[in-house]
User: Fold this.
Amino acid sequence: MEIDKGKPTNGDLDLKIDRESYEPAYIQLVNIIKQQISLGVFRPGDKLPSESKLCKEYKVSPMTVRRAVNILIDQAVANAVQGSGTYVNSINLGSAAFHLKGLQEFFLDESTTVKILEVRIVPAKDRASKKLAVGGGEPLILIRRLLLKDNEPFFYHKEYLIYDPTRPIVESELEVTSLRGLFSGTGSSEFKNGELGIEATVISSEEAKVLKAETGTAAFLLEHIFYDFNQSPVSWGWFICRGDKLSFTTTVGIQETL
Amino acid sequence: MEIDKGKPTNGDLDLKIDRESYEPAYIQLVNIIKQQISLGVFRPGDKLPSESKLCKEYKVSPMTVRRAVNILIDQAVANAVQGSGTYVNSINLGSAAFHLKGLQEFFLDESTTVKILEVRIVPAKDRASKKLAVGGGEPLILIRRLLLKDNEPFFYHKEYLIYDPTRPIVESELEVTSLRGLFSGTGSSEFKNGELGIEATVISSEEAKVLKAETGTAAFLLEHIFYDFNQSPVSWGWFICRGDKLSFTTTVGIQETL
DNA sequence: TAGTGGTCTAGACCACTTA
DNA sequence: AAGTGGTCTAGACCACTAG
Assistant:
């Protein structure tokens, strides 16, 4: 696209950085560029103005421009090619991500309660033995919980924990607070990191009973395994949720508001 | 935790920034701090050294420290409280995100092919009419595709497109390249943005036939709607994939390697 | 009031791409 | 050779927090 070099490259908008605004200059610049892409001033594949041009145009320092451009790159709105320029991306489903914020809200909700269905020591076998890296027959703690929202069953949770005789099970660990802490990041977790997986499955008869659902209906299975600071597995289990009660959504491409 | 102020706060590691390395200083600093958290030098809830201390300790400028700390904050490893300090986060499932990179790889794979099952003009009705914001009875393009990998059915894709008589359907838009472009960000898309959703479902008889699966087995449904640069809906549809052929995984907490 | 993070400046040098 | 992005310096001022 040909640009008249005597004029700013922002079309008819003539947007400026408002120095009096509480919004930082680099955020304003991000939004200005996004809006220009949104309006078609810059199209996918187009080269954005160089950093030095943006400096002059908006009268900010190179570091501020750089910070704004980096944000656009982080958000997969643009990509930089060293020595060449910064280019607007096409829409890219591969860069999409589904967040678990919805689940976080579920656990922070006041009407969410936990019902302990079972707590007992079981001998490790099969998958639990493998996942938790303990020999078959070694004792594990099995916890089965039902998570309710407004007294309606929502999640069925089955979890195997490493049995440590020196650390008795504290009641608080069984309550909703422990799970809430996991999802919200509050609480001082013993876990260093973990792995999560989502699968599509159908509800088994065991699960159907506690979830008040019919066997064979669709459900999400959210598997988890957590490791302690020695990188030893500590907890393995999974959540089951009826498919009609949960879904994950996200957006791709340029969003009107950040 | 009490720290002997005469010594560096990195325990027995005594890690330094290697100025000769190709790895930028700020990346090295990110990894050093992560490793310290990983080793338990800093635990969840602990305050990280202040920026000025990190400057002195690693002999880098404030901007470099700042950049490293911002990366940790972006990765949800730590959080900053203005006027107070920067604190290590607990593990937080709510910040977890499932990426579609796996699907991107699927579409980039050479052995992935597309079989067009049907292309025809249909009158808009029900959900398609609503989602694409056209009146009932208006013409829409319906495309049904089967995506195969190594000649085995993988995805069933059903898509409704706005019918624009001025823009005839180009054959290339029906091939795998168009979908590949969507997932990889290559290709010059007409779409500005879109919304995606994942649901758990069971395979219907129609879907079972083309996917060579049994009715009633678990499946993922990936719904999509795309908008053009006028923010008008252009495409609505969904992918169906057998649950045993697809899963989404991610990690939470501190990872050993970035 | 001292310390902290949040923002920003006005440059610099380098590696890389393009012509 | 000229232009571009990638990194980094050595400060500055501000708003906020905490003792």
Summary: Residues 24-26, 60-64, 67, 81-85 of chain A lie near DNA strand C (CB under 10 Å from a C1'). Chain A has two domains: 25-90, 101-245.
